[in-house]
Amino acid sequence: MPHDHAFAHAAASRRLSTDQQMSDAALVGLIAQKDRHAMQVLFARYSVRIFRFLVRFVGSESLAEDLASETFIEVWRHAGQYEARSLVSTWLLAIARHKALSALRRPSTDELADKAAESIEDHGDSPEAAMQKKERTTILRDCLKQLPPPHREVIDLVYYHERSIADVARIIGVPKNTAKTRMFYARRGIAKLMAAQGIERAWL
Description:
Elements: H1 2-21, H2 24-32, H3 36-58, H4 61-78, H5 88-103, H6 110-120, H7 127-146, H8 149-160, H9 165-172, H10 176-196
């Protein structure tokens, strides 16, 4: 009996190692053949990332959970349509974005600003410096809300999902130059809005 247990443990370890080494594209190929285990592995890799993206997009955790589930259901149903012209992660974000746009046309800025606040905060700051950063974060939140939704969306994908401009273009379905232009105007808009509040150097 102990031998059987050890054998089962070794087999499980080998399976886990194989799962970790398998590429995203290979997993999608198996999902297209209705391989449930491959679906579970892909879900484990990307569910948290997709959920966080959706939370910032729609501003609601409960709605984001529903949309994340819908995203992976879409993957299960249409994995055969993946053509490997982009990374699987880019493809997943594009599906999630489409689901979010269908549910809510305006992305929320609150979670985006909270994320920015995390990047600003330093627990070693003096009380005075901490207060200044808190005020800066409040100003940032207000400024982000004043940006057009397409500009907020580009900032989210570039700075919090670390996507390239080329990836952003694929995800939102626009030419690369359009995505680049939106990023330019988003950064300039933030700089102007924050300068008007007395902050000369913007956060981007």
